[in-house]
Amino acid sequence: MDSPTTTREELFVKWQGLPPVFQQQVLDFIDFLLGKYGQQQSETTPQKQLRPYGLCLGQFKVPDDFDAPLPDEILDGFEN
């Protein structure tokens, strides 16, 4: 299997040999593929690390009345 660099170089050399109108068609096709299949992460794009569950465990406590209705003076600030 070709390395990504070799494939990129081959693609670029072939693209340069095309007339400008066909170069644009190649670019349009790439845009089509990206739209259809989504942009894939390349080898050089770092993977986003997910935060572990319980990262702030013990650092704060959710009050027991967290889901309780807000006082009228606070609600008035949102509604007026």
What does the model show?
It is elongated and about 70 Å long. The longest helix has 18 residues. The protein is an all-alpha fold. The protein contains three helices and no strands. The mean pLDDT is 83. 49% of the residues lie in helices and 0% in strands.
Major sheet size, sense and barrel closure? none
Order of helices and strands: HHH
Low-confidence stretches: none
* Global outline: elongated
Mean pLDDT: 83
Number of helices: 3
Strand content: under 5%
What's the end-to-end separation, in Å? 65 Å
Radius of gyration: 27 Å
The count of strands amounts to 0
Instruction: State the secondary-structure class.
Output: mainly alpha
Helix content: 40-55%
Describe the SSE topology.
Elements (H helix, E strand, L loop, with lengths): L3 H13 L3 H18 L34 H8 L1
Task: Please describe the structure with a list of short key phrases separated by commas or semicolons.
80 residues, mainly alpha
Compact overview of the structure:
With 80 residues, the protein is mainly α. 49% of the residues lie in helices and 0% in strands.
